[in-house]
Amino acid sequence: LKAEKMSDVLDVYDAEVKANASAFYDICEKINPFLADLACLAEKGFCMLKDCIEKGLDLEKPNEEAVARHLFHIFHLMDSFRHVKRRAICNQYFNHVCAIMDSLPALTWMSVESNPVAFIQDIIEIAKFYTDRILKEFSQKEDALHVQFVEQWLKTLESLKAFVQKYYANGFTWKKVLPGLSNCDTTDFEVFDIPLPPPPPPPPVSLSSKCKKSVEDIRQELFAQINKGLDITKGLKKVTPDMQVHKNPSLRTATPVCKPAVAAKPAHLTKNLPSAKKDTTKPPVLTCDDKKWLIENHVDNKDIKIEITDMKQVMYIYRCENCVIVVKGKLNSIALDSCKKTSLVFDNIVSSLEIINCQKMQIQTMGTMPTLVLQKTDGCMVYLSKEALNCEVITSKTSEINLLIPTEDGEFEERCVPEQFKTVWSGTALKTTPSEIA
């Protein structure tokens, strides 16, 4: 690094890292304006990192508090994304938001004293948890833009890792003392307000108003004809004797009108028809790919036990029915998707537990659980430990969600999560509170 000039290092950063971030923005712009806004902010984050590198080359190695102030703008950007993630939980691009947001900590590699490359690689593995879900969702829809989204974002993160590997493999190289770092000004920063995408367009204008008029006209005409009484028969066509069978014998010998013959179905449509629907059940999966646990398609399995060896591991549970899953150890996060009548018991979670499209679930935490997210879930009993009483519960399109709170006598007290809400206009803003009957 000594042989490299500071300008050369920054030029490499522009050519390899920022260029990929800019290309990622171009792809997001083609998908959706909302994702384009997020990609624009992510690109700003890479620009902020460049400024931090440029200024850091003139600074002596500071303490942790000073490093945090040095990276203040990046941390503030990450905080803005957290608010967006909470608001976008019902959005169709929720996995895209998570893929970007959970990757942003890679921009703070300067705070890692040793082996920042491994730190960035761990962040990439976490991002792949969401990018894999994007590929799984959009691969069947044959939408190439979303595949490009995944490929370009991972390429951007890999380029950042390669840059750090080349110049700062053992940690950032701080330089001389520069007075004033401890008093780094953190007040001059941009407030990142990311609006959610606009609501879907209204449904097509109903044709009922147009049809109503025509129905009224028909009804009036019908009643007008009924009111004619016997005079209504005056409009009927007169039947002459030659049209009557009993007065015209030649009609009896006429060939009767037959229904047209129905053509036989082609042989290839009736040949080898299956007697029943094909069995589409997929084989059960229980694997660990590096830091990602996959548990899929298990039915009536009451003995699924997982031992966690690394707290950075994540777990994805998909289409399990009538199962019991026990997770020992501390891991980063767990996601349950499209499961039914399944029980999950775990020790500790660092980040969050997500339950999506599930029915009749039972969850029990023996330790910590900072965040619980439930989306499109009907019926879930959540047993909280004393360490998880400060858990933040986020619900959307859910019903019959019950939290069981531990009491001093070792029992549980059941509390229901509200399902109905009352919203009023205060004159300046909307205020929403749980309904009394909820």
UniProtKB/TrEMBL annotation:
Residues 283-419 form the C-CAP/cofactor C-like domain. InterPro entries: Adenylate_cyclase-assoc_CAP, Adenylate_cyclase-assoc_CAP_C, C-CAP_CF_C-like, CAP/MinC_C, CAP_C_sf, CAP_N, CAP_N_sf, CARP_motif. It holds the Pfam family CAP_C. GO terms for molecular function: actin binding; adenylate cyclase binding. PROSITE patterns: C_CAP_COFACTOR_C. GO terms for biological process: actin filament organization; cAMP-mediated signaling; cell morphogenesis. Signal peptide: none annotated. GO terms for cellular component: cytoplasm. Belongs to the CAP family. This is Adenylyl cyclase-associated protein 2.
